[in-house]
Amino acid sequence: MNFPSELKYTKDHEWIRIEGNEAIVGITEFAQGELGDIVYIDINSVGSEVAEGDVFGTVEAVKTVSDLFMPITGTVLEVNEKLDASPELVNTDPYGDGWMVKIGIKDPAQLETLLSADAYKSQVGA
């Protein structure tokens, strides 16, 4: 299982990649494996500020629907449009083409509360 060291992680299995004042958010390889085959992504929060820990969308797999939680407070700037036609990208490339949203970071200090790759790896028992 892959745990890219340049990313930060949440206990709810989201990852975040910092790019200046913006960040990319997705779900981890562990999370997509637990969900199984992903068939639909529902994110309607573009333009909205979403607080840390709040739901910014849902991911639907064959057997379940799971909420997506915002790792830090930010404004949703963009949703990955590729997921509309190909939600399975979350399964095949969760840290690349399967990203979910791009956000504008409101409070960079919140990044300090996120898990490192090693801490997340320990949490999931890998």
TrEMBL record:
The modification N6-lipoyllysine is found at K63. It comes from the Bacteria. Pfam families: GCV_H. Residues 22-104 form the Lipoyl-binding domain. This is Glycine cleavage system H protein. GO terms for cellular component: cytosol; glycine cleavage complex. Its cofactor is (R)-lipoate. One of its GO terms (biological process) is glycine decarboxylation via glycine cleavage system. Binds 1 lipoyl cofactor covalently. NCBIfam families: gcvH, PRK01202.1. The glycine cleavage system is composed of four proteins: P, T, L and H. SUPFAM superfamilies: Single hybrid motif (SSF51230). The glycine cleavage system catalyzes the degradation of glycine. The H protein shuttles the methylamine group of glycine from the P protein to the T protein. It comes from Hufsiella arboris. The keyword Transit peptide does not apply. Keywords: Lipoyl. The keyword Ribosomal protein does not apply. The gene is gcvH. Belongs to the GcvH family.
